[in-house]
Amino acid sequence: MSSLIFVFLIVLFTDDGVLVRGGNSEINFDQNYKVIWGDNHAVSLNQGTEIQLLMDNSSGAGIGSKMDYGSGFFHLRIKVPGNDSAGVVTAYYMSSQGSSSRHDELDFELLGNREEKPYILQTNVFADDGGNREQKLKLWFDPRQDFHDYQILWNQHHIVFFVDNIPIRVFKNMSNIGVSYPTKPMQIHASLWDGDSWATDGGRTKINWSSAPFKAYFQGFDVKGCEVLQNSSDIQHCDSDKYQWNTPSFWQLDPVRQRQYEDVKTRYMIYDYCTDRKRNPTPPLECQH
Ligand SMILES: *[C@@H]1O[C@H](CO)[C@@H](O)[C@H](O)[C@H]1NC(C)=O
Ligand SMILES: *[C@@H]1O[C@H](CO)[C@@H](O)[C@H](O)[C@H]1NC(C)=O
Ligand SMILES: *[C@@H]1O[C@H](CO)[C@@H](O)[C@H](O)[C@H]1NC(C)=O
Ligand SMILES: *[C@@H]1O[C@H](CO)[C@@H](O)[C@H](O)[C@H]1NC(C)=O
Ligand SMILES: *[C@@H]1O[C@H](CO)[C@@H](O)[C@H](O)[C@H]1NC(C)=O
Q1: Ligand sitting nearest the alpha carbon of 239
Q2: Is 231 near ligand 3, meaning CB less than 6 Å away?
Q3: Cβ(83) to ligand 2 under 6 A?
Q4: With a threshold of 0.85, does the pTM exceed it?
Q5: Domain 3-288: assigned CATH number
Q6: What residue ranges do the domains of the chain occupy?
Q7: Residue 11 pLDDT exceeds 50
Q8: What are the backbone angles phi and psi of residue 208, rounded to the nearest 5°?
Q9: What gap in Å lies between CA 31 and CA 38, rounded to an integer?
Q10: On the CB side of 20, how many CA atoms lie within 13 Å of its CA?
Q11: What is the per-residue pLDDT across 119-133, written as a single tens digit (0 to 9) for each?
């Protein structure tokens, strides 16, 4: 009996457990990432396994992957700026090259707040368009206190945003009914920037620069993704089931994760573009299913 349970646990762990939990967090930043902007506002810590981004009144900073990817199960461990961080945005996102209106992008944006007020997590999905698919959640923890894992699963079947392995958003491939779905190679990005024109209370709560410099910390620079050449239109090979995140157990949420997801939506979601009738008198197609 106990050996049966043991075998079962091993299977669970080797199936999606390892993948979902992320892997080797000892990987050096330089192996897969580089600083993209705000060079002197990025500091390497712990032998390069951790990066601190700083923002003061002269600059924020951003990092990005060296490679482009066509599918994967991505993650970063993040600790956001503490104390009064109103107006400060810590972002972790996947993005296709260029800034045309036909753009693919998957966003986590942690919206800073006054010290006594909670952070809000915003997500967005751009699929060959301008996005406008914001959702906002209260978090069930204070992201200033510790590192948490923010994950994006991207395969042909769906895109799932997770926080600490809990699904918080699912964007299904509904191209069969005419909803666009990301098709372009994307890079991984993270940044710390001044969003005080919109981020906190719709832009009414401003950055208090006497709290600067703001500091965000990042770990987990291992990447589980299918590499593609920059600007390549050939990402077909990224659908191959030689990549674990493309195998059937990743095509939809299992019953446990489905329940977690329902629970998050019920208890923590505070804004959903799908139900914003002012903005979308007719719900967007993907919201009708
Ligand atoms: C930026 O911050 C520095 C240090 O706090 C201060 O000396 C400087 O005046 C500030 N500059 C602006 C443009 O606010
Ligand atoms: C918050 O403020 C306190 C007091 O000014 C300071 O000691 C501490 O380092 C700050 N924490 C962070 C995360 O900035
Ligand atoms: C890829 O496309 C972007 C935007 O069109 C361009 O800025 C970049 O230089 C291109 N990269 C390569 C390697 O061609
Ligand atoms: C979306 O799903 C369809 C099948 O319904 C598939 O043919 C297509 O390749 C998928 N799109 C992407 C970008 O993976
Ligand atoms: C900004 O921070 C300083 C120092 O903590 C504080 O004295 C001041 O009241 C704050 N301003 C606002 C608008 O909260």
Answers
A1: 4
A2: yes
A3: yes
A4: yes
A5: 2.60.120.200
A6: 3-288
A7: no
A8: -100, 100
A9: 19
A10: 19
A11: 999 999 999 988 999
